Amino acid sequence: MELQKKALLFKALSDENRLRIVEMVAAAEEICACKILDELDITQPTLSHHMKVLCNCGLVACRKEGKWMHYRLDQKTLNAIKGFIAGL
User: Fold this and answer.
1) CB 52: neighbour CB atoms within 10 A?
2) Angle at 59 between CA 56 and CA 64, to 5 degrees
3) Of 69, 59, 74, 73, nearest to 34 (Cα)?
4) Residue 50 — pLDDT band, cuts 50, 70, 90?
5) 79, 42, 56, 3: which is closest to 33 by C-alpha?
6) If you average pLDDT over every residue of the chain, what do you get?
7) Is 9 exposed, middle or buried (0-12, 13-18, 19+ CB in 10 A)?
8) Distance (Å, rounded) from C-alpha 15 to C-alpha 81?
């Protein structure tokens, strides 16, 4: 994983709400945006912003079903960052 991608990933994880979102996504195989909104005290546009950041860094993948987005962790990115941390 290139240095710039690692920096984007750690920057994405530097926000408390995004960390909570990642924990929620990790706890489920896949989670709907509606369930994330039910758990967090944020608006839909704020969630969209956070999810865009998490998707752009490659940690989260998404798919649309009807009007809702569904999110899951990207295992390739997750494994790469685990390897990076293990190598420190």
Assistant:
1) 13
2) 70
3) 69
4) very high
5) 42
6) 95
7) buried
8) 17
Q: How far apart are CA 73 and CA 57, in angstroms?
A: 11
How many Å apart are CA 42 and CA 5, to the nearest integer?
Answer: 27
Q: How many CA atoms lie within 13 A of 17 on its CB side?
A: 14
Please name which of 21, 33, 29, 30 lies closest in space to residue 68, comparing C-alpha atoms.
Answer: 33
Instruction: Report H helices in the chain.
Output: 3-12, 16-27, 33-39, 44-56, 75-86
Q: At what angle do helices 44-56 and 16-27 cross, to 10 degrees?
A: 80
Summarised one tens digit per residue, pLDDT across range 1-19 is 889 999 999 999 999 999 9
The kind and range of the H/E element at 68 are: strand 68-73
